Inverse folding.
């Protein structure tokens, strides 16, 4: 219980306890909203599909955060974490991949994002590009999607029926600094 009578050093404990309760409340509200929206697909399915060269359902076999001493950190903006993800292709929605292919993908996730956890799960949806240097990469957080049934069904429907959503299809909407070709 929170002590609302702030005497001497008790104000710090009160502040911490209040912050923890607020975080628990907000977190539980967020989890409830996520749980109730499992039947809905992400609003990013179609933009991801048309603005990238590849879309696939992947099963990760290895996820490694790129260490801070790696040169890649000299080229990317503060607030992004690069991961090297090895994965098997489970389904292909766009691009010249085959089910069963093993690929390595450079995935950038913002520090505040919860997508770090998605990469560790058994399967996830991702839309991505291929650099001129031959590196598969993402460059926007929302390119990684949960592999919930509504999302996979929507990606499959867009693959089969197309979309009216207009996009470049050439990865030009990506953050240029997150393209491995810009890392010199």
């Amino acid at each position: 219980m929170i002590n609302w009578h702030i005497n001497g050093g008790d104000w710090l404990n009160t502040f911490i306890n209040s912050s923890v309760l607020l975080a628990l409340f907000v977190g539980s509200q967020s989890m409830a909203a996520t749980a109730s929206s499992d039947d809905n697909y992400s609003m990013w399915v179609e933009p991801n599909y048309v603005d990238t060269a590849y879309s696939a359902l992947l099963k990760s076999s290895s996820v490694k955060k790129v260490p801070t001493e790696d040169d890649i950190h000299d080229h990317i903006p503060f607030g992004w974490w690069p991961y090297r993800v090895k994965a098997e292709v489970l389904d292909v929605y766009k691009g010249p991949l085959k089910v069963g292919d093993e690929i390595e993908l450079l995935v950038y996730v913002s520090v505040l994002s919860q997508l770090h956890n998605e990469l560790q799960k058994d399967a996830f949806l991702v839309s991505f590009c291929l650099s001129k240097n031959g590196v598969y990469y993402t460059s926007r957080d929302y390119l990684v999607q949960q592999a919930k049934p509504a999302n996979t069904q929507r990606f499959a429907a867009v693959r089969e029926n197309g979309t009216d959503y207009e996009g470049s299809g050439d990865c030009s909407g990506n953050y240029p600094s997150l393209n491995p070709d810009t890392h010199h």
Observations:
- The chain is about 30% helix and 25% strand.
- The beta strands are 54-65, 80-94, 102-110, 123-130, 136-137, 144-146.
- Residues 43 and 139 are 18 Å apart (CA to CA).
- The two ends are 55 Å apart (CA to CA).
